[in-house]
From TrEMBL:
Protein's name in the database: ABC transporter permease
Topological type in the membrane: Multi-pass membrane protein
Native source organism of the sequence: Dyadobacter sandarakinus
UniProt keyword Transmembrane helix present: yes
Pfam families membership: FtsX, MacB_PCD
Sequence ranges assigned to domain MacB-like periplasmic core in this UniProt record: 27-245
PANTHER family, A to Z: LIPOPROTEIN-RELEASING SYSTEM TRANSMEMBRANE PROTEIN LOLE
Subcellular location: Cell membrane
Every ABC3 transporter permease C-terminal domain range: 281-401
Highest rank taxon of the organism: Bacteria
Length: 408
């Protein structure tokens, strides 16, 4: 331990220090501790929200999705499927037809997002944990087609899986029809399905109905065209690698996106909010640390005689500055360590016991999700160090100058 640190520690624990200086120092420590703890907790909550959204996306969205660069559909044949399957890391390929349609059940109707998928969808691993009633099946033992329906649609149409008489009726405008009266039944293609299961993920997916692709393609008059190809990647390969391989293999006619790219806007919004919150909390820590400035300024006034004596003993202005900078660092470091420890403890308690509830009955999780990341803890520590240097430098420099004048 160098001389400046030893003197700073002695000043910090000195019993003769005036009580109001000690009080201001304690207030500074408490302010830095609370600000640091708040930053750790809030950043961890944002990490948890990002992680939660990724889990939600994984429940419904494919690992990789192939879309047409222009238009809503593209031709799918065996050659294209073989080309996709030849890319390293591709495990399953699901053909998809997706568009809005009118759903009718009994005397009620609603606009839904109709998604047709082939038989590989049942092996994709999606919706496995989201089924709340029934089962994940598209065809019955005797070939009966089934629909997998979002819970929001079930509630809106009062669909019952026990009712084997009333079918779910899906209507889609007939292309090329010369019928001007859109209320006429002849203006729409019709598809009848039995409810096979209900799923719930989040409200953003509450308008989906999933059905066999061949029936949906016939309803929408797609023929052999498809809206997208959904890819499940092998466990040892990342979606980014497969996406890059597919982009190279398929060329410029297609757009290939991994799961994060499909939801880039939401993830970007979460990161931007996290950045702005971090900047805001940094200013709050700076305001709390202003007390360090005042306590060091008053300490410099109180210790003028000591500083003059140190100069007389051969001390340099640099040593005097380091004494007061070290004093400020002790105050800030004590508050930062307390705040970091408190923040980590609160995040652990929240993750372990879920003390703070989301307060929403429709949420997938009961409590606010938190996820500690060491880079956030390190970044918070760096911010506290920078703020400490800023608020401690001016009173340290003034103390060095004042002591130098007195020694002369």
């Amino acid at each position: 331990m160098n001389l400046s640190s030893r003197i700073a520690i002695r000043y910090f624990f000195s019993r003769n220090k005036r009580s109001f200086i000690s009080l201001i120092a304690r207030i500074a420590m408490a302010g830095v501790a609370v600000g640091t703890m708040a930053m750790v907790v809030v950043l961890s909550v944002f990490n948890g929200m990002e992680d939660l959204n990724r889990k939600i996306f994984k429940t419904f969205d494919a690992d990789v999705k192939v879309l047409p660069r222009e238009g809503k559909r593209f031709e799918v044949n065996s050659a294209l499927i073989s080309k996709v399957k030849a890319v390293h890391g591709v495990k399953l390929v699901t053909e998809v037809v997706e568009d809005n349609a009118l759903a009718r059940y009994g005397n009620q109707q609603i606009i839904v997002r109709l998604k047709g998928v082939d038989s590989t969808f049942e092996h994709q691993g999606q919706l496995d944990t989201a089924i709340i009633e029934g089962s994940l099946r598209l065809h019955g033992p005797n070939g009966t087609p089934y629909a997998i329906i979002a819970d929001g649609i079930r509630n809106a149409l009062s669909i019952s899986i026990e009712d084997i008489i009333t079918p779910l009726e899906l209507l889609y405008p007939r292309t090329g029809s010369k019928t001007l009266n859109i209320t006429s039944a002849e203006a729409f293609n019709q598809l009848l399905l039995r409810p096979g299961g209900f799923f719930y993920i989040e409200t953003r997916y509450d308008d989906y109905v999933i059905a066999p692709v061949e029936l949906v393609a016939s309803l929408m008059q797609y023929g052999t065209q498809r809206s997208a190809l959904e890819i499940r990647v092998a466990p040892d390969v990342t979606g980014e690698d497969v996406s890059a391989g597919l982009s190279s293999a398929l060329g410029a006619e297609f757009v290939v996106k991994d799961r994060d790219s499909l939801n880039a806007d939401l993830l970007r919004a979460i990161r931007m909010e996290k950045l702005f919150v971090a900047v805001t909390l940094s200013f709050i820590i700076l305001v709390a640390a202003i007390n360090i400035f005042f306590s060091l300024s008053m300490l410099a006034i109180e210790k003028k005689g000591d500083v003059a004596m140190l100069y007389a003993l051969g001390a340099t202005p640099g040593l005097i500055r380091m004494i007061f900078l070290s004093e400020g660092a002790i105050v800030a470091f004590s508050g930062a360590v307390t705040g970091l420890a408190g923040g980590v403890l609160l995040c652990w308690l929240q993750a372990r016991y879920g003390m703070v509830s989301m307060g929403m009955a429709t949420s997938l999780v009961d409590a606010y999700p938190v996820k500690l990341e060491w880079r956030d803890i390190l970044g918070t520590g760096i911010i506290v160090v920078i703020i400490t240097i800023i608020v401690s430098y001016i009173p340290a420099r003034r103390a060095a100058k004042a002591g130098q004048v007195l020694s002369v």
